[in-house]
Amino acid sequence: MISISILFTGVSAASTTNTTTYQSQYNGPQTNATDWIDCIGNTTPASLSNPIIYNNTIYVGDSNGLYAYNHNGTVKWEFKSNGAVNCDNITDVSVASDGTIYYGEPTGKLYAINPNGTIKWTFNGITNNIDITIGNNGIIYLENPINGNSNNGENLLVINPNGTLIWKYNNNTALMPAIAADGTIYITRNGGLTALNPNGTTKWNYNDNSTVYGSYPIINPNGNINYITSKLINGTINYYLKNLNPNGILQWTYKISNDINTTILTLFPLSINNNGTIYLPIDYMNNSTEISKLYAINPNGTTRWIHSNNGLIMTTPIIGADGLIYYGTGYLNDMKGSFTALNSTGSTKWTYQTGIPVGTSSIAPDGTLYIIGLLYTPGSKSTVSCPLYAFKNPLKVTNTNPIINAVNVNNYTTITITFNEKINSGPNSNGIQLLNISSSNRPTIPVSITIFNNWISITSPEMDGCSGDIKLSNNTVYEVFIPCEAVEDYSGSLLHSAYAYCFSTGNTIPAEILTVSPAGSNVSLTTPIIIKFNENIKPGENYSNIYIKNLSTGNIVSIASKTINGNTLTITTTYNHLSGDIYQVYIPVDAVTDTKGLNLTTRVTYTFTTTR
């Protein structure tokens, strides 16, 4: 006879995943890349709670204690209980909005733990296998098997945030309650579904003369309630998903596939996305083969799709904000397992072979997916035995400026590289380079590197405490190179692969003066004025305002001609220069323009002195 202990997930008021629906407000990982793997506890066997994420801390409980992990996988603190080591003693952890952590010890205590790991209060008189739900105003709801065995029925204990009992309800309750926004409490039971008022009195009962099978009630976005029942008809067990409105009136019934009617093993709690699609995981045996199916059911009770798996689904699927569905599977016969991400269409996005059955999971605000293994050998760091996995989208570039392979980039620019999350400098940050790859020796361009928030900025080297746009050459191809481990995310995960991209400049620098003649002293009295530019030019808007002035007399010199030939401006005077005098040549802004229409942007003046 095969026996398996199943981990059910409590509801945490502060959790990043809405465990009333198992819909996360954050996107999970798009690939199966692991950020880190760690082991929890130091004894075997043991069972683990769902991971709860609050304020960048991951809380996980086992039958020996409560563990707080930093987001980079290091242990923040441990709280050791007096729990008996027993795989059948399933613990649960939830976190309230004030940061209080609730941990159910398997031997009969509910602990309220402060965020620093110290005890706030304890509540005695509970049994093992509890589930914790946190409702309105921090009220705690405990689903507590009578005498530690759910076959004896279950109590629903309702406790104040200060640890005092408010009321208790015992009516052969089957599983953990669902709490509606108005405070109504829905509990499944043998024979149907009960709605309780916030004070514990009965609001209504829905009776269907069925046996509830492994299903917490779950509340749709429209307020309707779903749960699973089973009924023996003509010697065959039939399984149904029912949908009731908040008044307890049946809206529709969905019959689960006939091929699993007599061999079903487990139905886990339902999950539902923001659009109302219901995800129903079912485990069953088919000729000694362990198989599972994940049903996607439309809000109107029709089938959307069915995804079949080898192995048993061992957790309630959670749903990323982008619609990806995450769940773990495993085998009872050899205790191997994997974790799967499905697209919202039911196709496989990715899988990861864990080597052990894996269960509950949660998505952190940074997109890290934390997954719990169900069975493990503590103390080992191999992937086949560790119970806590952190999956995360690899650090990667999401945007660049200039864009990849951009052409005709402005010659004065700041380069920015944007990543998918916030970053710090890594051990190879000094290797970030800007290269001129048009040149055969690929020279490195002197730059200043700034790493801030989720981007790298590449600017000109600092001068007098300032930095600005890099001056780039015309018609040149540049490469931005970021080596592996140049940056790391806030959890310490490094950039695993080097990143490089190219862009090119056109000719976007306005014409600039290269040489002037004459210059200096002892200039011939008949020498023309010759000014050469870095490119071909033509007359500009202020071409007529070019002048030559005799600074010794204060008079403007009469110009006989101004001619442009290619990149050369030649000026001749009507009369010869006076001997021993100082002359000034003045070229105003916009006096000339290049062939692209870019005007001279800087006024140019220079002087020379004639011979005596």
Query: Helical residue percent?
Result: under 10%
Question: End-to-end distance, in Å?
Answer: 120 Å
Sketch the major β-sheet. Answer: 5 strands, antiparallel
Mean pLDDT: 83
The top-level CATH class of the largest domain is Mainly Beta
Fourth-tier CATH superfamily name of the largest domain: Quinoprotein alcohol dehydrogenase-like superfamily
| Strand element count | 60
CATH architecture of the largest domain: 8 Propeller
Q: Give the count of helical stretches.
A: 0
Strand proportion: over 45%
Uncertain spans, ≥5 residues at pLDDT below 50? 1-14, 42-46, 84-89, 148-152, 376-385
Shape descriptor: elongated
Write the CATH fold name of the largest domain.
Methanol Dehydrogenase, Chain A
Structural topology:
Blueprint: E1 17-18, E2 23-24, E3 34-38, E4 52-54, E5 57-62, E6 65-70, E7 75-80, E8 93-95, E9 101-105, E10 109-113, E11 119-124, E12 131-134, E13 140-145, E14 154-159, E15 165-170, E16 178-179, E17 185-189, E18 192-196, E19 202-207, E20 211-212, E21 218-219, E22 225-233, E23 236-244, E24 250-255, E25 264-267, E26 271-272, E27 278-286, E28 289-297, E29 303-310, E30 312-313, E31 318-319, E32 325-330, E33 337-342, E34 348-353, E35 358-363, E36 369-373, E37 388-391, E38 397-401, E39 406-409, E40 412-413, E41 415-419, E42 423-425, E43 433-436, E44 448-452, E45 455-459, E46 470-471, E47 477-482, E48 487-489, E49 499-505, E50 513-517, E51 520-523, E52 529-533, E53 537-539, E54 547-550, E55 555-556, E56 559-565, E57 568-573, E58 582-587, E59 592-594, E60 604-610
Parallel strand pairs: 39-49, 51-60
Antiparallel strand pairs: 1-2, 3-37, 4-5, 5-6, 6-7, 8-9, 9-10, 10-11, 12-13, 13-14, 14-15, 16-17, 17-18, 18-19, 20-22, 21-22, 22-23, 23-24, 25-27, 26-27, 27-28, 28-29, 30-32, 31-32, 32-33, 33-34, 35-36, 36-37, 38-41, 40-46, 41-45, 42-48, 43-47, 44-45, 47-49, 50-52, 52-57, 53-59, 54-55, 54-58, ...
